[in-house]
Amino acid sequence: MPTTAVAHPNIALIKYWGKAQGELNVPATPSLSITLDTLCTRTQVQSAARDRIVLDGNETDDAKISACIAALREAHALPPIEVETRNNFPTASGLASSASGFAALVTAIDHEFGLGMDAATRSDYARRASGSAARSIHGGFVRLSGPDWRARQVLAEQAWPLEVVVAITTTSRKEVSSSVGMRRSMDSPFYQGWVSSTRVDYEAGIAVVIERDFERLAELAEHSCLKMHGLMLATRPGLIYWNSATIACLHAIRELRASGTPVFFTVDAGSQVKAICAPGRASEVANTLRALPGVIETLVTGLGAGARIVDDFERQPGLAE
Ligand code: PMV
Which residues fall within 8 angstroms of residue 110, CB to CB, at 6 or more apart? Predict the structure, then answer.
């Protein structure tokens, strides 16, 4: 019987950008994220005659997925594996499909082949494939920090049910991947300042999440986002992930907040804007963002659970379970 796992993308409120020295894909900075609900990756694995990877219906030769399976094989005897995986949102456009993808993959393989890994160990393997994937193992508010660089939950999703509006401003793939971009940014004159100040932002972020202080979180998260994009811009050649609709969204979100709507923005290595809203406030924010020129569509989601095993691979994309 094949096993299916579901995992959701997560969005960092305190970002990581940059790698530590060494082999195991250890981030240079700690990070703090929220796991989403409606958006998901659904991954089915089973033993097969040869390794085979099918992504959104097409057979692919994905080097990162193969490397993740190879890392698991170093510690466990695994047969050839067929992996079939589907996202219900655009792949590689700043919506962190790699995060949900690797969290689902490791969780499905662990279950199908009885590897007996705990969440911390699954988070470790997911991180080696994609730094942010370590965090999608858990639901709600999640932190990723040293010394072991395995993600841990800070607050469950029900404890502070924030809502998120994702403004889609492009459907194309980003031109520079996160790993290439990060490598380049490490030569930026801003890099050391980014690393040292993010450690301080991270500690402050954990405290405001535990206090559920929306205003302080808004200030910290927007600062972390803008500081990361400042570093990206100050990289050679400069990394400009935003488009004009991205900037229109940022201004609109600031205006909404100034006029009393509890909302703040964050943007990852792409041009989609994520508007984080206090509970119950997403629809008014979505209405505003949808009306802006260049916004193709908006998706609304709450906070979701961590990677888990589900019964059925065939359930319609769009449903969380
Ligand atoms: O997961 P990676 O290694 O592709 O990097 C993701 C980096 C950001 O999304 C920009 C920030 C973060 O902490 O998720």
Answer: 116, 117, 122
User: Tens digit of pLDDT for each residue in 170-193?
Assistant: 988 778 889 899 999 999 999 999
CA angle 23, 306, 59 (to 5 degrees): 65
CA of 130 to the centre of ligand 1 (A): 8
pLDDT in tens, 202-239: 999 999 999 999 999 999 999 999 999 999 999 999 99
Site residues for ligand 1, CB cut-off 6 Å: 12, 15-17, 31, 98-99, 130-132, 178, 268-269
- Who has greater pLDDT, 318 or 227? 227
Q: Euclidean distance between the first and final Cα of the chain, in Å? A: 19
CATH code given to domain 163-302: 3.30.70.890
Which atom in ligand 1 lies closest to the alpha carbon of residue 177?
4
Architecture of the domain made up of 3-155+304-310: 2-Layer Sandwich (3.30)
Sequence ranges of the chain with CATH classification 3.30.70.890:
163-302
| Centroid of ligand 1 to alpha carbon of 178 (angstroms) | 7
pTM of the complete model beyond 0.85: yes
